[in-house]
Amino acid sequence: MANFVIRPATAADCSDILRLIKELAKYEYMEEQVILTEKDLIVGFAMYYFTYDPWIGKLLYLEDFFVMSDYRGFEIGSEILKNLSQVAMKCRCSSMHFLVAEWNESSINFYKRRGASDLSSEEGWRLFKIDKEYLLKMAAEE
Amino acid sequence: MVSVRIREAEEGDCGNILRLIRELADYEKLSDQVKISEEALRADGFGENPFYHCLVAEILPVPGEPQGPCVVGYGLYYFIYSTWKGRNVYLEDIYVKPEYRGQGIGSKIIKKVAEVALDKGCSQFRLAVLDWNKRAMNLYKALGAQDLTEAEGWHSFRFEGEAMRELAGK
Q1: Among residues A61, A103, B45, B117, which one has the fewest Cβ atoms lying within 10 Å of its Cβ?
Q2: Closest chain A residue to B130 measured between Cα atoms?
Q3: DSSP state of A142
Q4: pLDDT, tens digit, for every residue of B100-123?
Q5: In chain A, which residue's Cα lies nearest the Cα of B126?
Q6: What stretches of A1-142 show up as alpha helix (H) in DSSP?
Q7: What is the CATH number of the domain that holds B82?
Q8: What is the ipTM of this complex?
Q9: Domain for residue B162, yes or no?
């Protein structure tokens, strides 16, 4: 396996990031065969931001995390996670949070093998959303 | 019916907010997990780079009564980002003291957060609920919320403390 490097994204990476976002979206609905070309240098990404737990303080929230399927099995995902956890510690975050779909067994195993816990199963947390049309209804009421 | 005002929290509200955070944790049967200090809340919410925003519900005194307004509820939220939908708002905590429930204060707080969300160009509002908290789930569903864990199978995961340190290679 060729050497790889994990580095922060720059503005110039946006078209590659968008390509990977689309691939991740497809993956989350069905398995996808990825066709490689020699130009595919960027093979994975992680998108994160900081959130807040009023009981503890700052958290790192991992919104998207993806490695192209042909590049899996080479510890690239592990290296990305290591990088992220170092960012989290440097920024004094007490933990990293993220979502996983319950059918996504390979991802669930990947995270659990590395010490992650499923808060939905363990503590009963359910994620809810309110779409824009209902926000508009709420804001219009008086 | 008391007169209630929903307003943005100020630094001076942090003591009250911490008290209500502890009450909410107690209600969620997880009170041993509250480790935060008032100083951290001040620094994290009212410094140069806030990590959260907070609204408080204040009961306004009846004319002639000696005591001032009193904070009886809060909503703590922050902005998040979906790579599919863009800007969203996440309501992390919402709490109204038990003796003030049933008067629409919770709905007023949520509505105010919805207004902020729309004002900032957000297309979605997210929050988490404990599966036994039927009263809260019914309130949110009445406002148009959908349970994504049920509908799409999303589970919340975390790496914390020791697990995170190990990942970092420390």
Answers
A1: A103
A2: A125
A3: -
A4: 999 999 999 999 999 999 999 998
A5: A129
A6: 14-27, 76-90, 105-113, 119-123, 132-140
A7: 3.40.630.30
A8: 0.84
A9: no
Supply the pTM of this predicted model.
0.84
- Tell me which residue in B118, B150, B164 faces A95 most closely, judged by beta carbons: B164
Q: Are A90 and A82 in contact, with CB atoms under 8 Å apart?
A: no
Residue B48 placed within a domain? yes
Chain A hits for B152, CB-CB cut-off 8 Å, are 101
**Domains, in order of start, for chain A:** 11-42 (no CATH), 43-140 (3.40.630.30)
- Mutation target among A65, A95, A135, A136 for the B interface, most CBs of B within 10 A: A135
Record: contact A128-B165, CB cut-off 8 A:
no
The token duo for B4 is 């209630």
Number of domains comprising chain B: 1
| Options A27, A48, A52, A111, the catalytic residue | A111
Reported as a single tens digit per residue, the pLDDT across A46-102 is: 999 999 999 999 999 999 999 998 889 999 999 999 999 999 999 999 899 999 999
User: Is residue B112 situated within a structural domain?
Assistant: yes
Are A98 and A88 spatial neighbours (Cβ–Cβ below 8 Å)?
no
Query: Could you tell me the residue range of the domain that residue B49 belongs to?
Result: 4-127
A123 contacts on B by Cβ (under 8 Å): 30, 130
Q: How remote is the C-alpha of B160 from its chain's centroid?
A: 21
CA distances from B143 to A97, B55, B92 (A): 26, 19, 17
In angstroms, the CA A55 to CA B82 distance is: 24
